[in-house]
Amino acid sequence: METEQPIIPIGNLTNILSNPSLKWIFVGGKGGVGKTSVSSSLAVLLSQKLPKVLIISTDPAHNLSDAFNQKMSFQPTLINGFTNLYGIEINPKEIKDEDDNLSDMLGVPLDEETQNIFEDLKNSIPGIDEALAIGILLQIIDKMDYSMVIFDTAPTGHTLRMLNFPKILDEATQKFSLLKEKIGPFTGFIGEAFGDGFKNMMEMVDSFKVQTEKIRKDFTNKDHTTFIAVCIPEFLSMYETERMIQELNKDNIDCRNIVINQVLFINKENENTNCDMCKARFNMQKKYIKQIRALYEDEDEDDEDIDMNNDNKKFFISILPLQEEEIRGIDLLKNFGKFLISN
Fold this sequence. Notes:
The structure is a single chain. The chain is an alpha/beta fold. It has 13 helices and eight strands. The protein has helices at residues 14-17, 35-47, 64-68, 99-106, 112-122, 128-142, 156-163, 165-182, 187-194, 196-219, 235-250, 276-296, 330-337; strands spanning 24-28, 53-57, 77-78, 85-89, 148-152, 225-231, 257-263, 316-321. Strands 3-4-2-5-1-6-7-8 form an eight-stranded mixed beta sheet, sandwiched between helices. Strand 3 and strand 4 (85-89) form a beta hairpin. Mean pLDDT is 76; it is low at 96-101, 186-195 and 299-312.
């Protein structure tokens, strides 16, 4: 009987750590695959190289506080043991487009009349509330001058909606612009009827165009933004990862890093185990790891001869071991972080 070849652990996020131009990193995938462990460990690694790093959880079921054993909130919290690593936990749906925040984002004054007109219009555009919330959040963070911002995102569906917000804002802007063009001849009359509120709303439409284009360019610039897909070697996770990568590609969002997490390794130390379930899961995981690598790695690339620093590679695949305990606390995050990069 042929002896099973062991799965080889691979840390392949070196391309991210060595990219000085990156600003936004999104870590996402199906629920329960270890997104928080990967994003938190990556944040710790990056804090050792960069002046000021922020990790932010946009998952309503936050795990960031648990990972760092420290309470996080909407405001940036300096993580214990660091001088340059901060954390935020926030639910985008809970961000309110308050006058001050929205006015600051758009650069135009928003009086009560403007707010009322704007509320009536935006209610006709599905998803605009959450899109605005994300836009406000990114504008606020961008002004805080972080070297790197890492997003520990919600499960796939929520994440795709969040990353799709520039498109939603763009569609909203087009609708507002179309309205502006149609009522152009009547601007004077309407201005007299609605006062400064109407004028401010028209200025807001123009400002939307500028802000949306800036964010869209940032998100679709692979030198500024990248997405790390985290999965486990099981069918549903693999299927969802493939769907997510296809959606990201449609929106021109860079996604070249795939992390296969929670892998059970059989090596010389445990190859004679009597655990039938362990052997069964190992064989199942090995099958799906082969499928993932067949999908995303170069066909002529040998499994054991991977160029970690080849920027021309389409995908960088990491294979990380299942841990014996929960990854909580700085020491365990640092240890887990060692698996993220090549040895």
